[in-house]
Amino acid sequence: MKKIITSKNAPAPIGPYNQAVLTGNTLYISGQIPINPKTGELNEGDIKEETKQSMENLKAILLEADMDFEHVIKATIFVADMHQFSQINEVYGSYFSADTAPARETVEVSNLPKFVNVEISMIAVK
To answer: Which domain holds residue 20?
Structure first.
């Protein structure tokens, strides 16, 4: 059985999907882009600001499911420009302990929704 997880502190979906789905003890979080949930507008600062907003959106969804970043077992980062990876990684890494960081892949893509520079999805287990 699946339970839909929705947080008012993360942006509403921009298509036919949900912010997250909980099935059993596993939470599947849809990719988050740097949309400010309060304004519905893109946070179009530098790549560090975009990454931070994406991570804060993920954090809000995790909290709604009574989880935090320690529960994350897998992350996927999509980037528009791999040359920005070190800056993205710096912000992303600040949300995890190196000893318990999740598995991850980072993939460069030609475009992302709303033509943002970064999108991050996660899987967490309680």
So the answer is: 2-125
Q: In this structure, what token pair is assigned to residue 122?
A: 């996660």
pLDDT in tens, 59-110: 999 999 999 999 999 999 999 999 999 999 999 999 999 999 999 999 999 9
Tell me, what CATH number does 83's domain have? 3.30.1330.40
Residue 47 in 3-state DSSP?
Answer: helix
DSSP string, 89-116: HHHHHTTS-TTTPPEEEEEE-S--GGG-
As a three-state string, the secondary structure of 63-92 is HHCCCCHHHEEEEEEEECCHHHHHHHHHHH
End-to-end CA distance of the chain: 16
Find tokens 């899987």 and name the residue. 123
Q: How far is C-alpha 125 from the geometric centre of its chain's CA atoms?
A: 15
